[in-house]
Amino acid sequence: MSEHPRLKAVPGGLDEGARSARPMREPLWREALGEQLRSLRQERGEKLTETAGRAGISPQYLSEVERGRKEPSSEMIAALAGALGTSLGALTRQVAEDLLRYRPVPAHHPALSPMAISPVLLAA
């Protein structure tokens, strides 16, 4: 880490190694979909305008989808898949496989602790 001449590292602070050791947040579906769409588009060597034109959407909207900012309808996802030369099923499978690579960060919530889950007896 290159330090600014007047700034010093804080003892006990996080360094680059500690940040990367933390588990990554599981991405949302729209984020994983966007990454996959961008990857497919770039593999084809296409610009946003080319892919968006074939899918019938604006390049701005495609950009937002690729960045995980917008959640497109299933019809829009199918149009994008077709514009990128793949099927909706193949695109969905790839996104699902990408999502399965992440280990979710364990929730530390009191309601999820084993002691908070107890059987309940209901009497009529």
Q: Would you write up a description of this structure?
A:
It comes from Nocardia aurantiaca. This is Helix-turn-helix domain-containing protein. One of its GO terms (cellular component) is cytosol. The chain is mainly α. It has a domain at about 30-100: 434 Repressor (Amino-terminal Domain), CATH 1.10.260.40. Helix content is about 50%, strand content about 0%. The chain is built from 6 helices and no strands. Helix 2 (about 30-45) crosses helix 6 (about 90-100). The model is unreliable at about 110-120 (pLDDT under 50).
Number of strands: 0
User: What is the oligomeric state here?
Assistant: single chain
Tell me the name of the CATH class of the domain at 29-100. Mainly Alpha
CATH level-four homologous superfamily name of the domain at 29-100: lambda repressor-like DNA-binding domains
Q: Are there runs of 5+ residues with pLDDT below 50, and where?
A: 112-118
Instruction: Note the main sheet.
Output: none
The CATH architecture of the domain at 29-100 can be given as Orthogonal Bundle
Distance between the termini: 66 Å
Which class of secondary structure composition applies to the elements?
A: mainly alpha
Radius of gyration, Cα only, in angstroms? 22 Å
Average pLDDT across residues?
Answer: 80
Determine the strand fraction and express it as a percent band.
under 5%
Query: Could you say which overall geometry the principal axes of the C-alpha atoms support?
Result: globular
Organism: Nocardia aurantiaca
GO molecular function: DNA binding; DNA-binding transcription factor activity
InterPro entries: Cro/C1-type_HTH, Lambda_DNA-bd_dom_sf, TransReg_Diox_bact_type
Protein name: Helix-turn-helix domain-containing protein
